[in-house]
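Ticket reopened. Same input as before:
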Amino acid sequence: MKNDFVIRIGGAAGDGVQSAGILLAKTFTRHGLHIFGYNYYQDLIRGGNSWYQIRVSDKKVKNQGDGLDILIALNEDSLNRHTDPNINEGGASYLKGIAIFDESIKNYEKRDFVKYLPSPLSLISSKISKNPLLKNTVALGMVIAALDLDIEILVSAIETVFKGKSSDENIEAARQGYNYYMNNFEKIGTLPRNGKKKLLMGGGEAVGLGAAVGGIKAYVAYPMTPASSTLHWLASHSKELNIFIKVPEDEISAINTVIGMNYAGIRAMTGSSGGGYDLMHEGIGLASMLEVPVVIYESQRAGPSTGLPTKTEQGDLMMIINSSHGDYPRAVIAPGDVEEAYYYTREALNLADKYQMPVIVVSDLYLSERIESLDDISLEFNIDRGLIAKENTENFLRYEYTENGISPRAFPGMRGLMHNEDSDEHDERGDVVSDVITDPIKRKLSVEKRMRKLETLKKNLPPFKTYRIEDAEIVLVQWGSTKGVVEEAVDILREEGIKAGVLEVKYIFPFNTEDFIIKTKGKKIIVVENNYSGQLSGLIKMFTGLDTLKINKYNGEAFYPNEIVNEFKKIGGA
Amino acid sequence: MVTLKDYEYHVKPDWCPGCGNFSQWTAIKGALVELGIEPHNVVIVSGIGCSSNMPEYIRAYGFHGLHGRPLPVASGIKFANSKLTVIAYGGDGDGYYEGLNHLYHTAKRNVDVKYIVSDNEVFGLTTGQASPTAPLGFVSKTTPPPEGSLEVPVNPLTLALTAGATFVARGYSGEIKHLQSLIVEALKHKGFALIDVLSPCVTWNKIATYEYYKERVYKLQGNDVTNFDGAYKLATESGDKIPIGIFYKVEKPTYNDIDPVLKQGPLTEKSVEMKKDILEEFY
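Engineering reply: fixed in the latest deploy. New output:
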């Protein structure tokens, strides 16, 4: 029996497409079902073509999914657009299932593979209230009936999301939609209702929660899509979590402010997308030179320049790894899904303190703006502040040349540890060695001391995570947001008898060269990336000397599982 | 008791003999001692330029960062730990060209940091190019004769007033005691303070010399420092008469006073407590 459905709500910006999608997702996760939500939208506030896709199943869903079973079309354009076999929505499938739309829409091309369900969405909603968005909730009631789910759970989700009069109206709309469907149409499937309630979390929220559990006391950031979802979540929880939120005058100010905060002894983070992150480069080099820990969240969107502000891409990797001038230590981490966005963000905060260097957590629109169901996450976390000096240490050396490169920090306010932290080259004490007489011996020692931290970190890197790689002949290598879709592509290939597996790169810099070579030995390597040039593929060549095949997508949209399978076959993967 | 010796560091300044920065070095340390502030509670944050080397020569916590960026760093330190005395320091190129954006917004927010700018009208460390405060017609390597500088100079005082600074003053490196008294008043003031210091560059500026200022500088006396219009008018005085002293000083809540999280005390003293029911909203 079919247990995996794809539902799409299509309309214009301002039609409440996203809100309807999230309400539906919450209804599913309260049923104990798994979901994945994907937001397709444009860089405007009203009009255009937007849609929200929810995939639902009783099994974990790892991506937005191929196929389309239920369409809610909020206008004529959406109805035609999503039923067209020549659909041009960046890889999304056209409808082979039921279309729910208002009966006033008459002008559409009839397709054999679509079951059209014109319904009195507006008529029902207009009898309840003047609010035109209420018709969306009528349609959601119909979806619940179509999938044989519990209308009371939709009602409970509405009670959580809406307040007061608006809540009552939406509940009435949902019930009437549900009843209308039950009285007029047949259900298209049955999903189990008895699973344990799931968490419903967005990628950006997961970064925010990870930061909070990781112990940040401040988040300073300038708004930029798609990094803003983290800023918004933290701002809305600022008072209850005691986290200071500031939007400064620009991203240069943001990075320098959080460097000042970390220098003063608290954990503070900033975040942006590529354009804003570009402005932070000099600050990242500063943090590395002063050995001030700082975590920066970079959520990529399609570039260069303003690019596609509401579309996804993984085109910033080379830029992030090479953020600032000079040779300097830094770490780059790319979580692969919502759960990892939470765990790796808090881990990044420990790493930054331990190694006293910038740590960049890389996401993208596809991860930051998706929602996923999670069985559970742990709030238990051991905050490791790293090496901190004792007050009144005699002959305190802030930048002591230690074997592992890590030296003790001291915060202003601590007695007997006064010292200078300097962007000029400096010695163990922090005194400048670049001005009166440059000291080549100390310069060399200081460079080596900083870079030794990178060697220490490299030795402590975990091995790469893998998926079905044991007997694989072909390894699909991925990084970041594409984890779930590449894993599902491998599942499809496996069903066809192709021995494929996945190697997932989370710690991109420094790179665990040795483990990569071991895990890919004797196997064909294909690097799957949401960019034109194959940036990770280039890095792998640089780090390991290995040549790879590439699958790239750069039209602004995320991969779909069958797209990867098809590309795999095209480039002769098997 | 805090003495000057407590602020003495083994590294000594490398400025040119006669540089105006020496006076500021003396006045800053003198003011901190006068107020009995202990060195471990002081952070001096600077940008890049001759004057910005200041934190390297004072035994306190020093942060020598990026060109133009001392104010965001200083703000971050003050947001994190309101108990610290935070002095931002730099030159006119640093503060009025590259970092001007930050000056406006830090003043507007009334962040409780003290910003002292050594204003010599040139880029000293990069060999004397015209700075944002260089007068019209100023001749330098980048502004050759006969035209010289084509830009109207920045007036840091009117700019700070317009931005909403609660303490605006001008000092002069030739008047160390007066300068020290200004710094003392700035440190006692609760809120953002700008002190623009006329500071002769003995190597690159042959116009704004000690002799030049000696003839023109006069000390403000009896001016109503709470009168914005009066302060603004005084701040536009230039040419033969250049006023030094406190132009404007008013009490307003600082950013740390009004922010709902910051006003509860220093972030450095807060332990992390995660709400047990934080996951509820996700169900």
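Residues 26 and 220 of chain B are 22 Å apart (CA to CA). Residues 4-282 of chain B form a domain with the Rossmann fold fold (CATH 3.40.50.970). Please confirm and we'll close it.
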